Structure formats: structure tokens, C-alpha cells
Amino acid sequence: MSLVRAALVSLIAPFFFAGSDGSSSLVQAPSPTPSSADPPPTLRDRTTDLWQEHQLTLILAGILVSSALLTYLGVLWRNPLLLLKLPSSDIPTPWENIKVPLGLVRWLKYRDRVLDTWVENHWENARNEFLSLPTALLHE
Do the beta carbons of residue 62 and residue 92 sit within 8 Å? Predict the structure, then answer.
């Protein structure tokens, strides 16, 4: 029985390990050098190459951006006044040549929900301060 098994393995093994050109996949053949007649890579090819080279980095960046977005939306929904504590100038980053632009900070900070919550919490104080001004005229 073992003689039959050995014969089958010796017959099947070359086909199992052989590549499409008949060479063994265990020995890697040198890749052909691109000739000047080869067409330039398409956008799909470049995207596939980028994904293959940086797959882990792209996944981690996606997770980071998604978690930052979910955190922002959660704060905006639960306690929007916390967003007013964001600095009103460019936010420095650990990299000295990159800063979060002020326009993005304003967009995150001054949303309608944030401002509506602030007015809801402070309108009575603002009204009383305004009415105590000597220039405020009351039309009755």
C-alpha cells in the first residue's frame, strides 16, 4: 500500500507545486524587465499596487478616522458645549510643519446644534444683561 501511495505522490506532487508555466513555484524565477513597449500602468493597477503595499497602514488610518468621526458625533449629540472648548487657533501637531487649519476647527466648533445649545443655556442671562443697559429702550 505504501508503494502505491509513494507512486501517487511522485506523480501528483510535480503538478501541485508547478506554476502555470510548468516551473516549480518553490524556485522563484526572475521577473522580466519591463520593455519600452509595455503600456503605462492604469489607475486600477496603481491603486491595486498601493493597496498591496500599504494595506495595514490604510486599514489603521481608516479605523483612526472612523473612531475620530464617531467620537465627534457622539460629543455633538450628547454634550455639544464641550466642542466650544476646542482652541480657536491652529492646533499644533507633533509634526512641526503640519497644523490643523482654523477653518476645520471653526466647522467642528460652530455647528447649529452647538450654538443652539449655548443660546438655550445662556439666553436668560443675556436678556437680563441687555435690559439692564441704559441704552436699551423698552417699548410697552
Answer: no
Quick check: 24 and 16 in contact, CB under 8 A?
no
Q: Please write the tens of the pLDDT for every residue from 52-94.
A: 988 999 899 999 989 988 988 888 888 888 888 877 666 666 7
Rg of the chain (C-alpha set): 33
pTM score? 0.48
Name the 3-class secondary structure at 76.
helix
The DSSP letter of residue 85 is G
| Residue 91 β-bridge partners | 100
Phi first, then psi: give them for residue 85, nearest 5 degrees: -85, -5
CA 10 from centroid of its chain's CA atoms: 51
Give 65's Cβ-side CA count (13 Å radius).
6
- CA 15 to each of CA 6, 24, 27, 41: distance values in angstroms, whole numbers, following the listed order: 15, 9, 14, 32
Contact of 54 with 45, CB cutoff 8 Å? no
CA distance 113 to 49: 43
